[in-house]
């Protein structure tokens, strides 16, 4: 029996020995004794309430004025989550969702995060922002034990969509990430997005899709194992992880979380900005029956978007963005176009699009009928 306190101290035998080892090896914070001061005291502040994916908190596409300090607060939540009909994980989450909520600021703003690790949790956590500069993306400055909280501020210097994830050191890093602990930040250019010719473009809707690979251990009968807490599943899960073959690849934390009644919605003529984030593993989004009109494949808005993609590539550890104007009504399936991962492992979402069909773009000239009938 592993008590919570023993787990915190890392003194729980073989399974948790790496927890102690990685903590001891963790990189320490940089020397800041001669730091250049930040001059943010005169800047206006705005507080944003985070919302769970696939939705994104209220924000302006074009910055309404000069730089601001944009404040966010997130609780780290360790909780069991069901990821398929027959599979559960002891998830580690930012703010209770997988992926963690998206934070949106503008280039030149300061993102200020209060990160809280409630006393009910078992594990140490932190946050590494790929958008931030220095100190392991903030990871070295945000390590919080259960019962602690911290505040990190960084300047948003590079526009784009970027992954953030927990990275407490050693094998804790992949374990926390594939237990659900990642999310995305979007840093918009102050004057908004531009197309390939530099002409401003706006989106009517955002779809924030986080893809996760899970590695759930099985018992002797082949059934997925369930654990009372994250620490007791650590050793079994590490065995599955080290085989590099996920048991589940899903969008937004579970098989079917964006299909059927939970499908994404749009209307014909609307432009949807699809953000696709994957903190650990490569992916290849594809919208069946649609395209990427403008694709920032690596997700960074200082690069002109590519056009007319059929499938785009998301490097593990990055987020990409694709803008598409829906031209036909119907149900669109959005997949990771490794179709085994899409259909058998779970990486499928739906867009339900309302509007008027355009026979000029596609028409069923003759419904299927007897072979040789015409
Ligand atoms: Cu963590």
Automatic annotation (TrEMBL):
Listed GO MF terms: copper ion binding; nitrite reductase (NO-forming) activity
Pathway: Nitrogen metabolism; nitrate reduction (denitrification); dinitrogen from nitrate: step 2/4
Binding residues annotated for Cu cation, in chain numbering: 125, 130, 165-166, 176, 181, 337
SUPFAM superfamilies: Cupredoxins
Catalysed reactions listed for this entry: nitric oxide + Fe(III)-[cytochrome c] + H2O = Fe(II)-[cytochrome c] + nitrite + 2 H(+)
Record keyword Flavoprotein present: yes
EC id: 1.7.2.1
Family that this chain belongs to: Belongs to the multicopper oxidase family.
Domain of life: Bacteria
Protein name: Copper-containing nitrite reductase
Annotated ranges, domain Plastocyanin-like: 80-190, 208-356
GO cellular component terms attached to this protein's record: periplasmic space
UniProt key word Ligase: no
GO BP terms in the entry: denitrification pathway; nitrate assimilation
Main location: periplasm
Keywords, in A-Z order: Copper, FAD, Flavoprotein, Metal-binding, Nitrate assimilation, Oxidoreductase, Periplasm, Repeat, Signal
Organism: Histidinibacterium aquaticum
Extent of the signal sequence: 1-23
Cofactors named for this entry: FAD; Cu(2+); Cu(+)
Known partners and oligomeric status: Homotrimer.
Subcellular localization, as worded in the UniProt entry: Periplasm
Co-factor note (free text): Binds 1 Cu(+) ion.
